[in-house]
Design a protein that fits this description.
The protein is mostly helical and about 220 residues long. The chain is built from 14 helices and no strands.
Length: about 220
Amino acid sequence: ATAIEMVTSLAQSQHGRQHLAQQGVMDKISNMIRGADTDPFSSLYLPGDGFKAVLVRMSQLANVGATEMRVRSLEAIAHLLTLQVEHQTEDLLALTESWFLLLAKQPMDMISTISTQPFPELHCCGLRIFTAIAPQPWAQRLMINTPSFMEFIVDRSTGKTKEAKDAKFELVGALVGTSTASNILGSQHYLRLKSYLREGPYYVAAVAAVSTEGAE
């Protein structure tokens, strides 16, 4: 059996999913996939249709089940979708976009839902997926076309823990650090992101207490 078939088979049972999590197999598969373009033997262990099935399965595991398995699956997805600016080519960008779109009918909504959950581990993992795709122009177009997403990014009330604040700050930094963001997101959103970055991850806006007594 190919590695893909083995993972898919193991992922069908709870015991198998626990084994995958403990062995870090998701991360290993991600590394194999990322190196497939330069590995002449990749077709032996990485058939295209099988890989699609694994991505869909990883997405399912990220949405239901034990928190640990969901976290592992989300981390593997983030690792898989990471493509730094210096490594971007038209072909690789098309590849990561196709992988992201395999996650769900509305993958932005799916990850956004995870990113707003009250569980810090899941919340941060969702943000890390957005951070992974943030430097990629296709993802920036998805972000600006997703209602309320840009407001979500700069909303400091969505994560209260240090880890959540750090994860959000990393996402903003990943967006601002690209040459395409200002054009794709528009100057208004881009400047808000730059302000967020300048203020730092733990910034708390000062709220002036205004008395309304006697105003009438």
